[in-house]
Amino acid sequence: MAVYLDCNATTPVAPSVVQKITDALNDEWGNPSSSYELGVKSKKSIEEARRHIAMMIGGKPEDVIFTSGGTEVNNIVIFGIVDYYKDWVNSQSSVEGINEKPHVITTNVEHDAVIQPIKHLEKKGVIDVSIVPVSRRGCVVPQDVLSQVRHTTCLITVMLANNETGVIMPVEEIGREVNSQRKKEKLIRILFHTDAAQGIGKIKVDADKLKVDYLTIVGHKFYGPRIGCLYAHGLGHETPVYPLLHGGGQEQAYRPGTENTPMIVGLGEAARLVCENLSTYSRHMETVRDYLEEKLKEAFGEGHVTFNCSKDVKRLPNTCNVSLAGEGLVGHVVLSKCSCIMASIGAACHAQNKPSGRILLASGVPHNRAVNAIRLSVGRETTTDDIDIAIEDLKQSVTTLSCNKSS
Amino acid sequence: MAVYLDCNATTPVAPSVVQKITDALNDEWGNPSSSYELGVKSKKSIEEARRHIAMMIGGKPEDVIFTSGGTEVNNIVIFGIVDYYKDWVNSQSSVEGINEKPHVITTNVEHDAVIQPIKHLEKKGVIDVSIVPVSRRGCVVPQDVLSQVRHTTCLITVMLANNETGVIMPVEEIGREVNSQRKKEKLIRILFHTDAAQGIGKIKVDADKLKVDYLTIVGHKFYGPRIGCLYAHGLGHETPVYPLLHGGGQEQAYRPGTENTPMIVGLGEAARLVCENLSTYSRHMETVRDYLEEKLKEAFGEGHVTFNCSKDVKRLPNTCNVSLAGEGLVGHVVLSKCSCIMASIGAACHAQNKPSGRILLASGVPHNRAVNAIRLSVGRETTTDDIDIAIEDLKQSVTTLSCNKSS
Q1: ipTM
Q2: Which end of chain B is less crowded, N or C, counting CB atoms within 10 A of the terminal residue's CB?
Q3: What's the total number of domains in chain A?
Q4: Is the model more confident about B358 or about A340?
Q5: Range A243-248 average pLDDT
Q6: Same domain, yes or no, for B242 and B297?
Q7: Which of B21, B40, B68, B124 to substitute to test the interface with A, most A CBs within 10 Å?
Q8: Are residues B299 and B167 in the same domain?
Q9: Which residues of A touch B250 (CB under 8 A)?
Q10: What CATH number does the domain containing A242 carry?
């Protein structure tokens, strides 16, 4: 009896998404740039998917570009600022900024798909970076971000919700402030990006309300396939996008390469499901997650269970980051002794089972609790029966480990 | 009754490939970096696919990196040389080359996915480029390529087979020469790349025999899904690869982003089919293509049909590029009056139905014949019955156009 509690790593693919992909593989394999019916039909399906994505985030279809995934989107946005800054300097009559580097602001709890491209450019010496630490509640403080703004700041990137703790960041507040900063003349327009990978499908994401210029969408976090989208508010006219890849003219030449029609229509269907059912999904996940947390306290005793997300911050409805007290109860060891639970201790992207602890430590979790942390992230189909099984599984694991230790 | 003759634009997806993808969407959606069974299973399937890809091109699995497609592979290779050259200059004790740019050699009939990234870097002023014209037979002459080599040359990129004419390029001969040039000391190692998109699944492609450092593999040209692979001979130790994207550690950190397991296993299955059946596929396509060319001559008269690929060069077994003589018989117009044939006049990537004529003109085809050109590319399932229907369709189109003209 397996219980999947790792929806923040990846979700299953919704049955109707699988169906859409399979149908497209069979019937919509024509090259979308071809002028005959088979191609035209594929193109139409892609545009329908684009409309669903746009609807899901309250944007315009023409502002949505399909990519291979979230990593690519974040790289497009971050690498783009080097050219963006150069173009701005060249457009200025004064020489101010000409010998300076573009400046980027981000937080210390971002995903590697944001941190690594930033570090790469910093190491190459082409950008300056300010990394804003989150508060001890795991949440970034808008004023801490905004106080870092310089006259060379051209990008602020703050995740919508953290993948490990589930903390929802004050992106809307930062967006509002960035927007008002823009009123100042003669400065470069600060571009504001959020990686919304963990938000979409769990909480309402409205790009307009968030006042972001760029937003990253990742299919496999909301029951879609492993591709993604870049949303850019007023793409090309209000918000510049500098393509990372060069080739054919697909995706308005912002992202060339023959379109992956089956994956795109699958992503569109996943977006359609979110548009129709978000509040149901969200409520369900919250109920199950809250049940999980209650049962954890019951099973191990309140004093032995600590949740690594402050009560004072908004958090995702599906994420429970928990540490069981006890010297041998290291997160990945506890999980390895479970026979039913499939879960992880954090982002899966790196080496298997090697926790960096980076996010939790940055979020104010003390070291001994951070090493014991387990991330349990529920999904649309997780039931309270699943949770009961998971609790028994955890109890058995903890008993085994405690026996081993005392023997 | 539709007849698909556009396999160089994209192929259908093989039924067993569709099945593999669908199965993976249902059963192998776990994050391949996760340590529980669902993840481990996905990871295993990815490695199996990698072995099939390697076997198909006579390479090692560890030299294969999955990407989102051919455009991405070509961009990785081409963008990589900027850092490659910089690293080489930094490693030299002398200052030679320090104020020079890396030099790239390519041909004038490459696909946009090669030409555009090269043009982009040239326009930015970071590379020097030599574009070698092909001969009037549409084939590049090895000596013409090699005579362009300078002391700053760090990349030669020549396609394996042309998408429009079907001409197979002397990649092996160039590879041999490049290899012998490398014996000269103190020079930067020239990296040799071939975009094998149009070769794989049609002719035997052996990376070792071709003596290439990099090879581009594109799934949707051989009945696979719309992703691709970079093959790099001795990846990381013999041949440097500079990742274009930065993020998690997937694909040995050369290509981060959660692996698209379903597409990857589909690509592996497509490779397996090629490994098992290449000679059958190839013979079949050649038979059908030759039948098509005979029937074209019969239908329109030898004097009114010209094939835009010289008899003196090796060519793909599936491609027929033909011009019908007659003032009104412009390629895309003839196709638009066909009711059965799905085909195109060249690469689909650009604007629909707007022929650049670039490739044909570069290949020595005179202008009046180039505008009348139609590319008919057959596939594994194309039958001689299909060809009979296509010929009738073309005849009817030509009659309609001739009547319109005389009326």
Answers
A1: 0.96
A2: C
A3: 2
A4: A340
A5: 96
A6: no
A7: B68
A8: no
A9: 349
A10: 3.40.640.10
